[in-house]
Design goal:
This protein is an alpha+beta fold. Helices cover about 30% and strands about 30% of the residues. The protein starts with 6 loop residues before the first strand and ends in a 7-residue tail after the last strand.
Length: about 180
């Protein structure tokens, strides 16, 4: 039996500076509440954008990598709930996300190559979380959108998309905004 590892990394992506590729489409920025316009002007980054306060902003990212096996999904559900709670999501919204992440993983684990990892990236905005779950697949295909599972996933998460990536990776992207209608 070989050892399998679960890894978690948390980072803050620094705000863009002139010529930087950030923000990318879908990149959520949050405004720091402890920065006033006077403070922002005094600490502007040379060569930065026209709005100095925007130069110091950052988004929080959490990356979770674990074996692509159903036995590990409880860790991902717990991480999802904890991060949504950090964004002040309601209990109903948190439970919706827990179920949605479980459903997305169930859709992907059926395609996962045995012995590979499931990866989950969380991007935390001010009032939105974007979750990308992906696996390596032998015959990568996006999940069908006309299934009951996709309908449930869309109802729970708010916005759902799927895509194929390099290395035969299949991903499902969930985006849920705090206070969305039908959540709670």
């Amino acid at each position: 039996m070989s050892n399998r590892y679960l890894t978690v990394s948390c980072t803050q992506r620094p705000a863009p500076v002139a010529g930087s590729p950030w923000p990318m489409p879908g990149h959520v920025r949050k405004r720091r509440s402890d920065v006033t316009e006077d403070t922002a002007a005094a600490t502007a980054v040379p060569g930065g954008s026209a709005d100095p306060a925007m130069d110091r902003e950052s988004a929080d990212y959490v990356h979770v990598r674990m074996p692509a096996e159903g036995a590990y999904l409880s860790v991902l559900r717990t991480a999802t709930a904890g991060l949504a709670a950090r964004l002040d999501f309601t209990l109903d919204e948190i439970e919706d996300l827990r179920i949605a992440i479980d459903e997305a993983c169930a859709m992907l684990l059926g395609q996962a190559i045995p012995g590979t990892d499931l990866e989950c990236d969380f991007e935390l905005g001010t009032d939105q979380v974007t979750i990308t779950v992906s696996v390596s697949a032998a015959q990568a295909r996006v999940p069908a959108r006309d299934t009951f599972a996709w309908t449930v996933l869309s109802a729970l998460a708010g916005s759902v998309d799927s895509r194929l990536g390099p290395g035969d990776r299949v991903a499902i992207v969930l985006a849920k905004r705090r206070g969305t209608p039908g959540s709670g």
